[in-house]
Amino acid sequence: MDPHPVPPPPLRTVRANGVTLAYREMGPADAPPLLLLPARGESSADWAPVLGPLAAHRRVLALDPRGHGASEYPGTYSLPLLRDDVRAFLAALSLPPVDLVAHSLGGVIACLLAQEHPGLIRRLVLEDVPAPLPLTPPRPVPERPPGPLGFDWRMVLATEHPRNRPDPAWWERMDRADVPALVLAGGPTSVVDQSTVAALAARLPRARLATVPAGHHVHATRPAAFLAHVLPFLTSDDPDGTADGAGARTGGLSAARRGARMRGREGWRMMPAVGSFGPGTSRSTGEGWSCRGSSGARRQAGAGNEDIMSELPVVAAVDGSEDSLRALDWAIEAARLRESVLRIVHVRQYAAWTQPEVLAAGPEQVGDPVLDRLRADLEGRGQQLPVLEFVTIEGAPDAVLPEMGGDAQLLVLGSRGRGGFASLLLGSNGMAAARDAACPVVVVPRPGRAVPEDVTTEVSAGPRVVVGLPVDLKDDSTLTFAFTEAARRGAAVHIVVAYPWPTLAWTAVGDYTPTVEDQEAAEAECLSLAKDHLDPHRAAHPGVEALISVAAGDAAGHLVAASSGAELVVVGRHRRRLLQPARILGSVTQAVLLHAAAPVAVVPLTAQDEAEAEAEAGTAA
Q1: Among 81, 329, 554, 604, which residue is least crowded by beta carbons within 10 Å?
Q2: Considering the entire predicted model, what is its pTM?
Q3: DSSP assignment of 492-532, as one string?
């Protein structure tokens, strides 16, 4: 999502616990207060990507702790002192119990405050915060980065020892932090040992754990995914996730997954990300409590990462069009089969970005007629529904939808929306999502698409999941998705393999000569290669029947022909090319998206398959 800066709130100061603390304030003065605590070496400026949305309905106070940013550098530092500074800060401003969002070292400070003074905190969000447990072996003291810093290096040295050898009482008293808590883990690319984040969530008496695979700086790397977790938690009537929502199906769901629902919550408004607050601050290199400049590396939530994907929602993009309503129906069934949350997302394009002065003031929330109608319709159906979330986001759909896919196990949308040319078979938003989203994307077509009559591809009776298999490259992610989906639906997998015929050889400029080959031998070789690819997937899904069609000619034509009457058509996203590093869609995938008569799932390569593909491309070059 492109940043749309709002004017930065000015720095303010207050005297608390014997030091001068700087902070920034944004949002309605009479709204519930929300305090933001940064990671070690950060300042209030670090919250810029999410400050606008958080301040829409909260009085947000972003604090520079002592030794950070514009606050005083007294030279005396300890975690208890930093905790007491926060308590004194709240008292100096006469704040009622606050919502507290804290990152890394800020989260440790927040936990210490919640242990001693739980009445000061209404709800607690901990972003990639490690449990205060001893490090084995101890981490060496970091070297000071060159040049000027936005923090006091003495603060880093003073807080490094308790990171290696924390006070045992901090861990023993963690059960005193009896407040609703959301613990966000950064996933496998984070510098923090994720087992310690999970341990902290398990130790807190009223915490739920969610993983956003974005690295240590979740709010900066993936602000939309961060807000998609934090805003519902802060506004939910049921922060502990214990009450049963109307129409929500909770059977078979873990407590953490049940806690993700938002019973009776209106669609929330996500503002565009705001820009920097001026000069950037350096990040400390202290692993675990802060990290300099995350590259934004994201683990794909593609096939092969089922451990992460199973806890993520199915996301359905809606805009009120008939196409999106058909996609919603398909997504409801997909979420039901997966026993997962269904997140219904409406992206309102640039609804308020032309009014920066209104955004800065934190406007009153307006309703979303699209989601209001859908909510009423779903409540009136009387059918068993998955757990539902309703989310409104303001932004450019072709940018927002791929971003939302990074926090989903499946992204579902219609082939056309309300914008653009009605005659087009696939809209730009669908093409962008299929090309760029980190998760599989399902595009549901309009009914009545005709398949080519001149292509004869035999199909069997009964439910089928069709998958295109290019035998000349490794694409386990697509096959894994197809077999898993077929198992869910009690369907067979129909594998379509095509080979070019007749093959041509280039002999001179503009001169192509048919080669002398045995077509039966070519077909037999394709069949043998296909079986080699399929063997591990057949073994993993012994109850799924696998049917193979090998035919000469255009792969897209055979897949489109096989789509008639199919449950789903599964194709892979094209691999990256050596001289074209951006994601692209192969010609077969594009043709299937445009012409298939069944829903089409576009599956990205797993990180491992993509790395192998890039290595092969480099070797070939």
Answers
A1: 329
A2: 0.52
A3: EEEEEEEE-SS-EEEEETTEEEE----HHHHHHHHHHHHHH
